[in-house]
Design a protein that fits this description.
The chain has 4 domains: 3-37 and 80-146 and 325-343, ATPase, nucleotide binding domain (Nucleotidyltransferase, domain 5); 40-74, no CATH class; 154-190 and 272-322, ATPase, nucleotide binding domain (Nucleotidyltransferase, domain 5), CATH 3.30.420.40; 192-261, ATPase, substrate binding domain, subdomain 4 (Actin, Chain A, domain 4), CATH 3.90.640.10. 40% of the residues lie in helices and 27% in strands. It has 12 helices and 18 strands. The longest helix is centred in the last third of the chain and has 24 residues, at 254-277. Bound molecules: adenosine-5'-triphosphate and magnesium ion. Adenosine-5'-triphosphate (ATP) is lined by residues 20-23, 80, 168-171, 191-193, 217, 220-221, 224, 296-298, 300-301, 323.
Amino acid sequence: MSLFNRLYDYFSQDLAIDLGTANTLVYAKGHGIILNEPSVVAVKKTVSGEDEVLAVGREAKFMLGRTPGSIKAIRPIKDGVIANFEITQKMLKYFIARSSTPSRRLIRPRIIICVPFGITQVEKKAVKESAYSAGAREVYLIEEPMAAAIGAGLPITEARGSMIVDIGGGTTGIAVISLNGIVHCESIKVAGDKFDEAITNFVRRQKNLLIGERTAENIKINIGTADSASKEKVMEIKGRDLMIGAPKTIKITSGQINEALTDSLNEVVNAVKLALEKTPPELAADIVDNGVILTGGGALLNNLDVLLREKTGLPVSVAESPLSCVVRGAGQVLDQLALLRELTIT
Ligand SMILES: Nc1ncnc2c1ncn2[C@@H]1O[C@H](COP(=O)(O)OP(=O)(O)OP(=O)(O)O)[C@@H](O)[C@H]1O
Ligand SMILES: [Mg+2]
C-alpha cells in the first residue's frame, strides 16, 4: 500500500449505513456497528417557517405521539424509501456527524447505503443526494436483501440458491440469491409497521380503546405471536376509552394479538410462497436443502419461523442478530473492494 493510501485509510472513515424505515444503523470500517438509533426526527417550526431539529433517534422516538402542536416527531422513511427528503437529509447529517471522530473528519467518508430491492431511479437519486449533502465523498448503493444475506452468513458467491426473508418496519423483502446476484425478489409493504397498525385497529374495534403507535409496538414485542398454539401471555395496556373518553387500563392476551396479526401474517406467507413458485427449479431444490433464513426486526416476532415452516414445509431459521444483518453485510462489503464493485447498483 502506498503512503498516500495508508494516510488516507488512517484519516478517512468509511461507513456502511442501513437507512431503515424503523432503525438506522451505521458500521464503520475497522470498528463494527457504531450507531443504532430509531429513524425518527423531532422538529419544531420556527417563526420563519423552517424546520428546526430538536431531537434525533431514540429521544425523538420517545416523543412520537406525545408532542404539542408546534413540535412534530417525524419518521422520514416510509415503506423503505425516503418520504420526506429534507428531514432524511437532516437525520443522515446528524448520524454521520455522530459517527465521525475529529481526526477522521479531515476527509469526507466513503459511504455505502442499503436500499430496498427494485426502488426507482428517482428514489435512488434521492438517497444518494441526501448522503452527498450530509457530507459523503463517494456514495455506493447496495440492495438490502443482498446485504442481509451476507450479514446472515449465506454463501452468496456460490452457485447455490439461498433464500432470505427480511422483515423490517416498512417492507418485507424475499430474495433468492445465487452467484452474487438476486435471481428473484418479491417485496411487499407489509412488515412491522403494518403489524402495529393491525394491533391498533384490533384494540380499537374489539376493546373500544385507542392506543398510540408506541404502545402497539410494545404489545407486539411483548406478547405478539405468529402461532395461535403458543403459550398464552397476558399484558396490561393503557389507552383512551372511546366510550367514556378517559384513560383506561385493560388486559389483552397473546391469542388476541395473534388474531389481530393473522391477515398481515398471511400476506407475508403468501409472498414467500409466490417467491418459491417463481424460483428456477435447481435453485428451488437448493432452498429445500438449505432452508430459508429470516432477518430484520420482524424475524423476532415470536414463532414466525414456526408459522413459515408449517406453511411452506421448508426448514426456516432466524439469523443471528437479525436486526443488524443488513448493516453487518454492508460492512463486510466495505472491506472487500472487489465485492463492492460487483454489488453496487447504478
Ligand atoms: N422482538 C420483536 N418482536 C417483533 N417485532 C420486533 C421485535 N423487535 C423489533 N421488532 C420490529 O422490527 C421492526 C424493525 O425492524 P428493522 O430495524 O429490521 O426495520 P428497518 O430496517 O428499519 O425497516 P425496513 O427494512 O422496512 O426499511 C419494527 O417494526 C419493530 O417493531
Ligand atoms: Mg431493513
